[in-house]
Amino acid sequence: MNQFLNIGDISNLNTTVQDAIALKNNPFAFHSIGKQKTLVLLFFNASLRTRMSTELAAKNLGMNVIVLNVSDAWKLEFEEGVVMNLDTSEHIKEAAQVISQYATIIGVRAFPTLTNKAKDQSEWILNAFSSLASVPVINMESATAHPLQGLADAITIEEQRQQKKPKVVLSWAPHPKALPHAVANSFIQTMQLQDVDLCITHPAGYDLDPKIVKDTPVFYNQEEALQNADFVYAKNWSSFNDYGKILTPTSDWIITKDKIGEAKFMHCLPVRRNVVVEDAVLDSSQSLCIEQSNNRTYAAQIVLKQILESL
Ligand code: CP
Predict the structure, then answer these.
(1) pLDDT confidence of residue 199
(2) At the N or C end, where does the chain have fewer CB atoms within 10 A?
(3) Distance 155 CA to ligand 1 centre (A)
(4) Is residue 47 in contact with ligand 1, taking CB distance under 6 Å?
């Protein structure tokens, strides 16, 4: 693998999931592969899990790690041909080349604007690094994708499945703020590659990008979708068509113990308790959220290992 911008950059999801589970059982098996290599992590936005699990994954492989909160550096300019006489101090053309000199691999986290759909869909920040850096780039959640989360979720489902082909339901859930589509997009794309029976449920108006959903069944009735579910994955996202907007109040879409029955509950975290999902679910043995976070380390570790092997 020579980059990890999307889940499609993995050549074989099932093999990669099995290799990640093997790494989880023996995290230091490849502790020399990253010796004298450096992972630079660039955060344009906040993070708890991605920041810590990716750093831990790199260190398990023997890599050095440099983390930069981009807001602490010079303000970057991304436009071509611009007269830089306003508030941007450094162009991405120089910055990407400079950082490439310090890095063997660069990780980038850059959320969408949720106001400019065309700009977000173009993945302007992630793709600027990908095209201008001279080293591989990994996506630590971009405007439209969060493939490290998707891979961790695939690992979790593989570990927890009781059925050959479990029913997996991605359910929209309420949230007070307008949130991106990245986690939902990558979860759908990953489940489309895994041997599961996937469906999506959300209120009218919250349809996701049809290029992502493809022929995955969509239900506007949550109760109908949740019937006989083995895994319920809750996530909020703002409207894609009425871009970045929160539509009419829909607090009745909260995930409750009654609604999910015996199904396992999943969420990428952070989660707003008793808004997205009630305490009774999160505090029960049905919740896989903490294990999903644990698996973020092994998702990052297998991706870094595959990239290091390709250098
Ligand atoms: N799930 C996830 O990516 O968490 P962070 O935003 O804390 O990194």
Answers:
(1) 98
(2) C
(3) 16
(4) yes
pLDDT (0 to 100) of residue 249 = 79
- Closest atom of ligand 1 to CA, residue 292: 1
pTM higher than 0.90:
yes
Q: What is the architecture, at CATH level 2, of domain 149-292?
A: 3-Layer(aba) Sandwich (3.40)
Determine whether 134 is exposed, middle or buried from the number of CB atoms within 10 Å of its CB (0-12, 13-18, 19+). exposed
Atom of ligand 1 nearest to the CA of 269: 1
Nearest CA to ligand 1 atom 1: 268
Max Cα separation, the chain? 61
Cβ pair 17, 298 in contact under 8 A:
no
Closest atom, ligand 1, to C-alpha of 51: 8
SS3 content of the chain, % helix, strand, coil (to 5): 40, 15, 45
Probe target for ligand 1 pocket from 43, 44, 48, with the most ligand atoms within 8 Å of CB: 48
Q: Is the CB of 50 under 6 A from ligand 1?
A: yes
| Closest residue CA from atom 3 of ligand 1 | 50
Decide whether any atom of ligand 1 lies within 6 Å of the 149 Cβ: yes
Residue-wise pLDDT for 104-162, tens only, equals 999 999 999 999 999 999 999 999 999 999 999 999 999 999 999 999 999 999 999 99
In the chain, residues under CATH classification 3.40.50.1370 are 7-145+296-310, 149-292
pLDDT tens for each residue of 210-269: 999 999 999 999 999 999 999 999 999 999 999 999 998 789 999 999 999 999 999 999
What secondary structure, in 3-state letters, does 18-86 show?
HHHHHHHHCCCCCCCCCCCCEEEEEECCCCCHHHHHHHHHHHHCCCEEEEEEHHHCCCEECCCCCCCCC
Pocket of ligand 1 contains residue 142 by CB under 6 Å: no
Residue 167 has pLDDT above 90, yes or no: yes
Topology, domain 7-145+296-310: Rossmann fold (3.40.50)
pLDDT at residue 89 tops 90: yes
